[in-house]
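Please review this pair:
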Amino acid sequence: MEDEELSVTQRYGLIYGGNTPLGARCVADLKGKGWWIASADYSVNPHADVNILLQSHEPPEVHERSVISCIQRVLDGKLLDLIFCTNETLKEGSIEDNLISVGMDMWLAHVAPSLICAKIAAVCMKNSGVLVLSGSTAAMKANADKIGYSIAKSSVVHLTKCLAMPGSGMPAGSLVICLMPFYLDTPYIRGLNQHVSCGSFTPLQFISDLIISWGMKKNLPGNGAMCQLITTNSNTEVIYKK
């Protein structure tokens, strides 16, 4: 775990998955805007103010305790303005494959971190803070060859709706948004979708700019909104749905 002495900053954020391609882009851009940023991931992001190193052999409950403990210790009473949970892991699999194993892997990759970030928000985020979870537009349709992934991403969508309801335990006046890209422009996602045209991948910079605007309380959708990102001919359209 690495941390630096806190300087006087106006905003504090946590990127859960801060060394994934999208998470790293957000960390760098938020730092460029003067934010204090913590990264929680399995490897170090050298640009973050604090790195909370997760261990793959540890259960989600340990990850949750580790992140909350570190945030509370380092911020010493200050609270987060923004939490963004991101993970691009995708495993294909139909009912003919090892569906239980794939399904559990996808649950641990996508649902567990989302639940952890929801708990972090309840404990460590300001009133009127913003929690952004990662769903998938592609997973909202039936996918016979991506059953485990689709179930996991659908669960994140449902979690978003639940957290937006009164009595969920979220901080007063806070906002939860489900970010739903179709194809992220990363080498990993491009490799899995070689049949897709180059102009259909959503640039990471576009998403990072969107996350920053929400963190700055600009262009905010309604609480519990699904933010679909559809990129066609290199132009990305943002579609909000409840």
Remarks:
- The two ends are 38 Å apart (CA to CA).
- The longest helix spans residues 99-124.
